[in-house]
């Protein structure tokens, strides 16, 4: 850890608070995330949707939605690579720590800015477009707030530690802690000394994942595979004046 990273303020160090945050909370969040999705799918299949508001407004949606979704996709892939792939693996692949660090910081910063920018546009759209605002629930508002806080803290941690400060190698602390949760050997001591912005980002992410199954974010786990095999939808006109043009072969009108 560099001197600049050490100069950053620290949050919870150890003891009961550390056990609650870095051992108990992750397992609660994981359990609620899994069981919550099972419950939602079983008892609220018709609510498993994004509740699209595209019919109400499209101009802002065309800008904000791609920015947010492509940005969050890159952020997600970066987190998967940074948290699940050990540093020894990238070293064995011939990728130096400096190269990995530069690529991760540059792509992570760009993706974070795009994600926050797209989210800001989507929130502005929901607040200023009457029909969209009327269709926004309290649950949606809480979800947008949680997303903004989590993404904002992640971007702030990246900027503070790597662009403003002298750098911080989270793959020596946060990544092993994250993997230890799935090994069923959680090591809270690894989070001791981690800069406060990284700690706050981790806690906010755990809370977001606990709330995830009960929001419209469930649509992320839905793949529209049924569209590939479902039968065609037949549309029939109610107009008695169908015109005099002869139908194409194979498209005779249904009487």
Descriptive overview:
By secondary structure, this protein is mainly alpha-helical. The chain is elongated and about 75 Å long. The chain has helices spanning 3-7, 15-43, 59-84, 87-92, 97-128, 130-134, 138-164, 174-182, 196-211. Helices cover 61% and strands 0% of the residues. The relative contact order is 0.16.
Quick rundown:
The protein is mainly alpha-helical and 255 residues long.
Key features of this structure:
Nitrate_red_gam, elongated, 255 residues, transport, disordered N terminus, 9 helices, mainly alpha, electron transport, 61% helix
Estimate the strand proportion: under 5%
Secondary-structure class = mainly alpha
H-E string:
HHHHHHHHH
Compute the CA-based radius of gyration.
Answer: 24 Å
Give the end-to-end Cα distance, rounded to a whole number of Å: 78 Å
Number of helices: 9
Topology:
Elements: H1 3-7, H2 15-43, H3 59-84, H4 87-92, H5 97-128, H6 130-134, H7 138-164, H8 174-182, H9 196-211
Helix pairs in contact: 2-9, 3-5, 5-7, 7-9
